[in-house]
Queue: 3 jobs
Job 1
Amino acid sequence: MSSIVQQQDATETAKALGGVRFRNFQADPLWAGSALIAAVLLVITFFLPLWTMKLTAPQYPYGLYLTAYGNRMEGDLKEINSLNHYVGVKPIEPDSVFELTMFPYVLFATVALVVAAALFFRPGWQRWLIAALLWGFPLGMLIDLQYWLYNYGHDRDASAPYRIPDFTPKVIGGTKVINFDSDTMVSYGWVTMVLAALFVTVGPQVLRFLRDAWTNTGTTAVAAVVIGFASVAGAMAWQPGEARAQAPSIAALIAAAAPGDTVVVPPGTYREQVVIDKPITLAGEGRPVIDGGGTGDVVLITADGVTIRGFVIQGSGVNVSDEPTAIRLRGDNAVIEDNIIRETLYGVTLIESEGHVVRGNQITSIAAFDSERRGHAVYLYSTRNNRIEDNTIWAAKDGIFLGFAFFNTISGNNVTDVRYGIHYMYADDNVFTDNSFTRSVAGAALMYSRRLRFERNVFAHNTSEASGYGLLFKDVDDVLMVDNQIHHNRLGITLEGAPFAPGSFVEIRGNLIGYNQTAIELTSTTGVHFSGNTFVGNLVQVEGRGGDITLKNQWELDGRGNYWDDYEGYDADGNGVGDLEYRYEGAFDDLVQENEALRAYRFSPAQAALDMGARWFPVYEPETRVVDPHPLMSATRSLPAESSDRPAMVFAIMALLLAVPAGVFALAVKGGAGDWQPC
């Protein structure tokens, strides 16, 4: 009798506790199964990515990737942070993200709660509380991430090198910021969180249906369950673009290859230093990453006839004295093409070898370092017969450095945001065509060399007060410079001791030299031939140091001078050549030669007033700087599009300034016509 009473008391106690009976675990088995499946899915979530972002741009055609897990971020974080630095966006630092720190604790606490619910809860309000909690995971993640992305695009450094408007990337979908396209999407971990919430919400009903179906058609039900779970597992395991497994190592692939083979490297990140010691082609599929791990050179080529293409190469050492590099060439006749080289001290190093082609690569140094700490993007030393073509270079020490490098062709390269676009010493017989060297400390510095040819290059927007020249020629001989554009520099062309040796020449003809603070600066330089050039928009046409040094150079060749936008002569016979010689004089320049401290007043109103007074009141006759006996009446070259619209812009502004008061007056007349009376 007493045992029956005790059992009834236990039952009443269980009811009072919401149906929980700790001794016999009276939870609904269908609910328990659903909750346990949800708990397993939550555990799986910890190991899967939750969200992905892909950035593409012309300079990153294969994209930059960022993958967010619950407790970490992976991908091209260094490169993305280096780009963020230039536009003032704060760096992404996973260790400082509160959500990533707390996610493991919150997740596994939730797993423990769901397991307890599976064992002790009957279907009721407790079940719906658990369901609401699990739905909060995927939905809360999207809300929190969108808020984070908003702050990411709005909390920026106002002193950044490049200013862009505030922006908000979408948590799901595409966003365009300047020339970057951002594509974001939830990933497999987010899907498993949704599945876990679904199992605690409708799992018992689904399992009940399957149980009932088993009673009638057991085989069909089993097949449905198996097929369903297989589909879910397959979806979770499949990852687009990664159908092929990553190779164990690039070194193993090279070791297995025969000379002359093409070795295709599957997508993935390979954390190793690669040595290529046989003549093979190493081709990346899907832009695999070779990461040197921050030690020494990343790729060392010791064999002749090697080709490497289609890789991201990063992670060299950082010790400046060791000159660690992304790709070091010690064999001959290599082809380095279509690679992205980043976060390496030096880019491509060619030393004591020859016959290489470096073509179509994107090369940067370590963005976090200042200019003097970085290495050269392309470094040629004691080498010859190389072609450096169509590379995009920025954020390095020098774009292309040549020392004791002979018979090389440098063509089609775009170099910006470096110290010197070209740095050049003791290097003879080199040709530079169709390159662009812009927005750097200096476009080119060429010293102690012979037989150089420059054709169709651009040297522009180099305005540093430290140098700021488009080109510097120092102690060089036999230089031909034809059809180049030198504009918007502090100093257009600086010549010092050029030509250097008796009987040698420097010819500068057919170039556009415009909108520089000083077009030509001559120091200890005689015998330079200037002809067919267009001088336009410069604040100072020619400046000389060393007495009448400028007059010891030749400003025409074979009866053909230069076009000067301040020439005031005429052409009576219509042959395109002025009938009067062009003379450039500057009273201010005379004073600067006597007192160098006055150079601080250059381009000030004081300089303009002094030069104007010398022309109008010839009490003091300034020294003649240039005499061009055959000045041209029309420009030989036009300005680049970005510069040639300046006069049109001036007229547009003037028209606007006139239109505003005219419009206001017209509105006033129209509005108050009844109040106007004739005088």
Job 2
Amino acid sequence: MLTNWMGYDILKEVSISDILEAKMKRTIGERLKKARKDAKIRQGAAAEKMEMSRTTLSAIESDKRLVWAEEITKFAEMYKVSANELLYGFADEFPEIEFEAFLGNSEIRMINYSLLYDRLNDKDKDKVMKYIVSDLEKIATSAIVSSISKTDTLSGFINDGDKEPCWDGNIYIHENSRHSKKNIKRIPTQVKGKAVKTKSVKDKIKYRVKYDDLKAYMMDGGTLFFVVYIEKETGEALQIYYADLLPIRIMKILEQTQDSYPIDFFSFPSDNKEKIEVVLNAYNDAQRQKSFAGKRLPTIDELNRKGIMESLSFHVTHVGKEISPNTIPQVMEGKSITLYANIKGNPIGIPVEQHKNITQVTTCQKFDKKIFVNGIEYYNHYLVLHSAFDTKLIIGNCLTMTTPVVADANESSIKTTIHIDVKGTLREQIKGFEFIQAVYANNGYEIENTHISILLKEKHFEEKIQGYSNRLSWLKYILDLLKSMHVKKDLEIENFSEEDEKNLNFLIAAHGKHKPVREEERQLECLQLLKISNISLGVIYIKHTDGYYYMHDYFGEHLESYWKDGDKATRISQFTVMTMADFLKYDNIRLPMIADDFKLLPCSEEIINEANLLMLEMIKAYDKSKNDELLVTAKKINDWLQEHPKLIGREVCIINKYQIKIRKTYLGYSDKAELFSIIEKSENNNYRAGAFILLGEFDEAKKIFDSYGEEQMQEFINYPIYTLYQQSGENLM
């Protein structure tokens, strides 16, 4: 029914070759010459306005010299024609097809285009599709060229169609607005056009890029990839998008092999300075990354383990005013960021592996200024976080004041929001709630001598304050309970597990409120571990006269302990059972009490031996923890042992005395003299070997070890003095 509609018989007589070849009637040079003559401008006058010689203009019009993007724009303005007409042809270059369809509405044109297309053979259909795509690319290229030509230092080389498999041309970066060739920089570009409806325009899009193209970009050092959205009906360029496809980013994209990849593209800026920044940053990062293309990148953890990483950095080029920590996030928003590791002895940063593409930056500034409320100091610093969207002032783990970044807004119209969220350890939360209560009561706080007003008088907040008060009272109760057990470590209360909650409630009931413990729930009358988050408590459950078991702090009081052998019960210290691991495990240990405990017992060879062994476990624990209090306590025990020479050998006490001392300082002449005396007089090889180790005579010690059997050697290895032997670089096992 449509075959004769509106002159279809005329349409079918026009070959596709006629249509495709019609646009080749004139070159760019010929079009420029025609436009000049139509504008009635002499060649000399045109050359003068273009700030070029007449010879140069003549060469352009005869196609002996290529035309730069900015030149096309200037020619178009001077001749009062469009840049597209200069690039792609005037109306008279198309075949004279006299039929109404080309003059009707868009629906009629599309019907006739469809009818024509359906009558073509496969070869001509392919030509049409290539032509349509080519036309989109030309419109897209024109949009890119027009955009960058408006800047002072960027220019683009115009390719009339694709000349290379993966690239459409280059953007050139000049030192100044005169576009001199001195120190000129170049970054390859790829341009694609996509026909869309106007409503499809967004700030960010996804566009698929082929594997082979990405591989080529990576090995070449990267490219700036542009996608131009073109209005379907009018052919107008709506929005330019870009992606800086640089080697490191591409390597991450290609980790999963597929034919093509959806890639994030961002709106190309309209501000000319921002355009220059995009191109400069892409070029500079491309140069840094080029030599790493296709190579495995180190991770931050790997560099830290090797101990060679000094810092991490990223690089940004900014055109215009000097940037500061608070403006960096706005400058970097949407831009691809690569992290570089600064390595000891290497002036060039090494790109490190990134789990994802970073496009947002938040800067953090620490200000070492004291925070007061009503003359009481709560904090000695505060933080300011800047993002592209807002600025946050953070005090402690409790108060955040957020001010949005709003362009062209009056200061009075910008609303700061207050967010209270008390987090952190037990002590941090207590301080946070105390601070919030003080701020509420005093309508603000002071940063040194500057008062910051905060009015929290809304009804709903008054209810919150009461809840904060109840929470604070409970937290203080927990702190007092732990202090009563001599716990110095801060409780990590924020991320409690169900088990942590259960054990804390048990501690409150059994120790805080002295409630009895059911026998079946606990092992009784021996050292037990009660773990609450990061704190480990040593406790014991003892049967009282009422027949019930009660919890006791194992390190809170002296307990009568006995070693039973059949019917015989021997009094011992409750701490005899402790090992190196116990000294490292429990957070409620009172070390001075342990030393005193042995002094309360009836002195015997067994008690002396137990005290000596416990002291050695303390020294081993010190070597693991570097807790000086362990050495102090070990010295107290050894001093007490020396008071009983009839129950313990003199050599043992001397060796232990100096192995405690040497862990903190050097041995003096008299100290060494005592050790030499042991070497000369003692018949015990363990004592002699220990003395040699303390004197630094490790070769002599090894001679003794060479005479040991496996069992004897293993026994010596278990002594803490063997650690000093290992520190010399020697090892017997």
Job 3
Amino acid sequence: MDKIKIKKIYEEKINLLSKYNLFYYDKSKPKVSDQQYDGLKNEILLLEKKYKFLKSKNSPAKAVGHKPSKNFKKFQHRVSMLSLSNAFSEEDLKNFEKRILNFLSEKKEFKIIYSAEPKIDGISASLTYKNGIFERGLSRGDGKEGEDITANLSTIKDIPKKILDKDFPKDIDIRGEVFIQNSDFESLKEKFANPRNAASGSLRQKNSEDTKKIPLKFIAYTYGFEQGLRQKNQSDYLKKLNEWGFKTNPLNKTISGVKNLIQNYNDIEQQRANLDFDIDGIVYKINNFELQKRLGNVANAPRWAIAHKFSSDKAISKILDIDIQIGRTGALTPVAKIKPINIGGVLVSNATLHNEDEIKRKDIRIGDIVTVERAGDVIPHILSVDLNKRPKKSAKFIFPNKCPSCGSKTEKEFNKITKKIDAVRRCPSEGYYCDKISIEKLKHFVSKDAFNIDGFGKKIVENFWKLKLIKYPQDIFNLDFLKIENLEGWGKLSVQNLKYSIDQKKNISLERFIYSLGIRHIGLENAKLLSKHFVSFSKFKNLSKQIDYEDMLNIDGIGETQVSSIKSFFSNKDNKKVLNELANVLLIKDAIQNSDDGLLNNKTFLVTGKLNGISRAEVKSLIEENSGKTISSVSKKLNFLIIGEKPTKKKVDYAKQLKIKVIDQAEFLKMLNKSS
């Protein structure tokens, strides 16, 4: 086939995909199923891979999702809609309960009562009621900000518009799940791949009359902001929701003990196939609201709740090849290239093999017939190998002991915390010596939670790298746009758009900047902790001049592992060069400091010994909530040493020597106007 014919076929497919995007994202009227849509995308990507001359600004390789709909206004959630941590085993649940007991400083005999609720696979929504009147409904969005879908939610019969009950709170956000029953989905499956997609598409209709035609259901399960809620626990709250006219999950139970949670989990899993709605697990919440408040949140998830996920869909396939991928931290990850299979409506062609030890343990080889498992959004993995179908000439897979990219000898590090050798083999290259690591670092630099440069996706990073347009992050802000304009697939307008996107991101917060550097063990939450500590970029950058990094251990949440990674980062010449040159082209904003009007403002604390009925974690949380700080050692910076049972004598003596005030638990709580 000649180039002209190939290009024509390619352009027809691109135009068709653009049409599908228009109908799905802007008009919320999908023309094809998700499976058909994904099939078309894959066809385009395969053509681009086979014929390198094919280029299009509308290629799915360049696009990451689609721009958010402009059809809806956005509002801040008064209380963030958090995600949940996941559990997949009994051991995960035991660890979850152990963490709760440790935080509350309770013994294992302490009886925790859970509210156990099957997790409906739908779309989360938050309903604001003021004086009993349904005022506004928001989607989850990014957890902090949601789309105003009030008109569409108002069409759902399960959502009361007015509640006259005298016990109903004056002001409350009632949260729940919008979904479509499996029996109702039968008439919609030509348009949507599954009930969840159908619910999502229906809530995004521009015209609420169109939403009204869809048999949407709503089940309430929690609250966000509240003023006047009288119920003290989840089970009583759910009963009240029913009295107020809301529907709740009929399979809700209050349960105590991990063994009983497992029994209930197994019972529900057996019922799963017969239910008229999709569920993907069970959510366990601490039933008592007061305990929920004490436990609080960690990162973007509550400490007091967890989702126990069901076993995922499985399928049989063949391993065609094993590819070694290299991440930005140097980790070598083996990926199985499998014969494409449909699992749960998703076409799967790759499955992670985790690490070298996993391949050895399961004796996974190229050519093997394997069971592939896919759990929700988790990356598919190889569950087992069918040894009976293994080819006679099969050979064991030999994991490379040299980096496939730069040739450096790979290594497995000794973990000081676990006292074991890490399972992951790594390329030890620091800075930008290894090409693959460098490319991954640049992808991370422009990613959503970092600089989030619109139109600068992974494929563009790879392309610009190959063309030697970029090597270091600072090169992005010094691109030769005239050269780009002459590249195939680029024009004046697309180059102007790219330049505008890059210029818009020259102003960035300190926390996002720190995260963008891709320092190992420094994710977004740790980047926030560091930005809060250093406040300004100049103070953070001064780490390059330091020899001793011990002071950083005083940052709550930052441990030896993180400090070691930061020290390693700043000891590399390339990294220092990157920081210096970025400083010349960027405006890095100082961190916004917390309110300093708390009861413990400008006061520092250290705890030694065992406290009664309260853990150190909870004490730290209380101190920070009240504008105080915790440090890890006795020094002149310390204001108060809180002592419990059997305190460290050395710390107490040194504190007295420095004339630091030594207080007990009761005195500390008195400072907060609390009683022990």
